[in-house]
Design goal:
Four Helix Bundle (Hemerythrin (Met), subunit A), 195 residues, two-stranded antiparallel sheet
């Protein structure tokens, strides 16, 4: 079978989880077109959960590969960088300052992911990982859409988060900060779903 479909040689647990995460991203796009922000946020949360699991299982099962790193970065860019831009455009609008902020955020996310693939720290991340950035900008979009806060609140969050992603800060892999961010993200998701 692999003779006719050579990409099948890359099937393993972490790559399957990454692919499932991308599936959630595609479904998020469908709900975005329907104007259902709650469903979009749920799908994005599930995609980032798959991202957390794929890294864990890649290390645990010793199934790290260049292919997996590339696929993971592509999915991360789509879910964590492009989706917030689309959400902001769809639910907040095309304010020039907001457009500039989301473009800046996407470019910082791109550079963050490329830097990680080239210079991966042993046991730590340099700059905020893009899933953490996604959580911050998601929390910056929701109150503007739901409670009518001024759009510049999202602008500030996009610019600040972009800077954090390309900054010198060092965060321990699988450290307490990830558990805190996962807990905050889960609480935020529950708030969004019942709010």
């Amino acid at each position: 079978m692999k003779k006719y479909f050579p990409v099948l040689q890359y099937i393993n647990v972490p790559n399957a989880l990454t692919t499932i995460g991308m599936g959630f991203g595609v479904v998020a796009c469908y709900f975005l077109l329907q104007g259902n922000l709650r469903a979009v946020y749920f799908c994005i949360f599930m995609a980032t959960f798959m991202d957390l699991l794929d890294g864990y299982f890649a290390a645990k099962l010793n199934q790290q590969s260049k292919f997996g790193a590339y696929v993971d970065s592509l999915v991360d860019f789509f879910i964590c960088c492009l989706m917030p831009m689309l959400i902001a455009q769809a639910f907040i609008g095309g304010y020039p300052l907001l457009i500039a902020a989301v473009i800046f955020y996407c470019m910082c996310g791109l550079w963050r992911l490329a830097h990680f693939n080239v210079v991966e720290g042993k046991g730590f991340f340099t700059g905020m990982p893009v899933p953490g950035g996604l959580m911050l900008v998601s929390m910056g979009i929701w109150p503007v859409v739901r409670f009518g806060l001024p759009y510049w609140v999202s602008v500030i969050v996009f610019f600040a988060t972009g800077l954090l992603m390309v900054s010198f800060i060092r965060l321990e892999k699988y450290g307490i900060w990830q558990k805190v961010m996962a807990a905050v993200g889960l609480i935020f998701l529950v708030f969004v779903l019942i709010g």
